[in-house]
Amino acid sequence: MPASTSMSKILSRPSSSSTSFCRLPRHAVPAAFARNPAPPVRLSCTWHSLTSRRRFAGSCHAGASSRTSLAGASGEGASAGGYEDGGLPFVKLSSNILQAELSLLKDEEVPSPLLTTLPSLQKRNRGDGHLESAPAYPAAMNALYAACLAGNATEHLWNFTWPAAVAMLHQSLLPVAVLGFFTKLVVFVAGPLAGDLVSSLPRIPTYRSLTVIQAAAHLVSAAMIAHAFTIPRASTALELLLRPWFAVLVASTAIDRLSCVSIGIIAERDFVLQLAGKDRPVALAQANATLSRVDLICETAGASIFAFLLSKNDPLTCIKLSCLISLSALPLHIFLGGMMNRLADGIFDHSEHRRSPDATFTFDIRRIVEDASTTIRHGWKEYVSQPVLPASLAYVLVCFNVALAPGALMTTFLIHNGVSPLVLGAFGGSSALMGILATFMTPSLVKELGILRSGAVGLLAQSTLLSAAVLVYLSGSISRPGALFVFLGLIVASRLGHMAYSVIGLQVVQTGNPIGKAKLIGATEIAVASLAELGMMAVAVAAKDVSSFGVVAVLSAAAVAAAAWLYCGWLANPTQKLKTLFPL
């Protein structure tokens, strides 16, 4: 019988099946899958049921979860699947699939039609809604929420305590403004380096070390402020700035802030993405909203505890108690970080970029400086080239608002205007509660308008309310209690739009950037935001006196209005990339 006739009979379709599969001999490699095709081999084929095909499809799908290793991963997943008769996987003899797999070997960036059709098979087998809304590691995600609760509560308490204590050392905005200026300067310069550094180190040890460093910075800052209350007061603000304890306070505050930024980068751009799953948008949105609620609950608790402590004790005692609470929460924070990793099957045991075993470490200052410069340039390049840059720049413009928000400058302004500790606590707590309300309202807003339009609504609402607050301040009636409460009420209401855009903008940036660049871009974004805050703190330093607070307030409201204009202009002229990422 001729060879062509034999082969046609072997490969002919049986009457009971519309698809043909053949089994390869144990040592035969199909020519289509080899870079250098071997001599032709004889194929002996047998027919198998649909069950085998489903198992092969599932193993291919599981092995192809990473785009950068599709060719190798699919083979490994199939070999580990456990096949009948102990043979190699079954290969569907379809010319378009074989050609696609050959192109995949040549270029890893070209997606295979086989791999792109497998999700549709998964949709027929399992419900997509459940997969998108369920995080990949639910128990580990709960541990992360608890760790953030322990860390953020002490952080917010400290952020309310130290500005109030420093403001009582001298009747001027200058000490608090200088502290804020140098803190933002350090974050601006070292932000991209922090993002690159945390990517090159084991995540859990780095996370724990940063929490220890932050607690130690709190302790040093508390010691310096306590020392300032025990010595004679400075007669001028400049004399206070030139004292040695203030220089140490600046350094410890900068270290505290840089540690806080690094912890936030790890949690928001790494832990959340991997525990929730970047390919599960509903779960990721829920995780971001929950983390925002946790942070706002901690802000509410911090403001309330601060108000209670300040109403019952002097500022020095408040500083000591705040530091004691921070040190007490440290062991719990460290324990919860380790528990999260164990519940996630140890996925954070290693760094993202492992050092080669043969690599040797040499301390070369010149090389360290060159590497740092390269990292900073690379971070800025990636940040500028991201497809959702206008959304990130809108967030940066919002960060210009350092006056019309709960913070160091507002606390100093209210204390110098004779506002009681209870009003201070109520202002901070109600601002945080408004933010919590925003996290519950945002999902409904997104459902009605879409994620991008919801961000525009948040920015427009914040801009309108802050503009009204500035008008109340400029009217000159702020000294009256009624006008003061209207002024503070408008700022509190503006936090609704602020938090809505914070949640939405975070998810826009997370979704619009690859996971491998998330922390570098996130760290650079924080550095740019710190630059914005740095500029406003420089204005506050130049203003010096509390009577010049109105200048900073007007600039803050103008920056938020510019953010709304930029974002709305971006939505009015969407690019093709934007339409692909977020269908409008």
Explained architecture:
The protein is mainly α and 584 residues long. Strands 1-2 form a two-stranded antiparallel ribbon.
What is the topological layout?
Blueprint lengths: L2 H9 L9 E2 L27 H14 L6 H10 L11 E2 L2 H12 L6 H13 L2 H6 L4 H30 L6 H27 L2 H28 L6 H5 L2 H33 L4 H32 L2 H29 L21 H21 L3 H10 L9 H9 L4 H29 L1 H24 L6 H32 L5 H26 L5 H24 L3 H6 L3
Antiparallel strand pairs: 1-2
Helix pairs in contact: 2-3, 2-5, 7-9, 7-11, 7-12, 7-13, 7-16, 8-11, 8-20, 9-11, 9-13, 11-12, 11-20, 12-17, 12-19, 14-20, 15-19, 15-20, 15-21, 17-18, 17-19, 18-19, 18-21, 20-21
Number of strands: 2
Overall structural class, as computed from helix and strand content, comes to mainly alpha
Order of strands in the sheet with the most strands?
Answer: 1-2
> How many distinct helices?
22
